[in-house]
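Our platform keeps sequence and structure together, in a single record for each protein. This encoding replaces a full spatial description with a residue-level series of whole-number codes. We quote a single record here, exactly as it is kept in our systems:
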Amino acid sequence: MRAPKCTRKFPRIQGTILSRISHKSLGELLIARACVKLLGIPDGSSEKSVSLTRIGSCEIRIFEGPQVTSDGMRSFWLELFDHGAEKSVDSRGFHEIEDAVVVFEDFISQADRLKEASGPGDAEIGS
């Protein structure tokens, strides 16, 4: 007896799973995934940041901060960068993913406002 092919059903299953995940949980997953990717980038690398999403001309990215707490926790920073203006709009540090999710949601709101002010463009979440 042959095993059924699952590849045809996967997109439907994936859509069902993703539809049950809250925005907060999706943000937590994106940030946790980005932190793991970031920790895998060798020290001294010229690209020591990971992009979380692009909204219009804005990009939300994460990078490792210079500070380590007394209990060994690393600090990370989220940055909202406007490629059109070629400048950082906002950045904030965090130690806990829950704190990063609040910042991430705020940056999405800021990027949406900047996008509306500058006109239509594409949004790309979870690159």
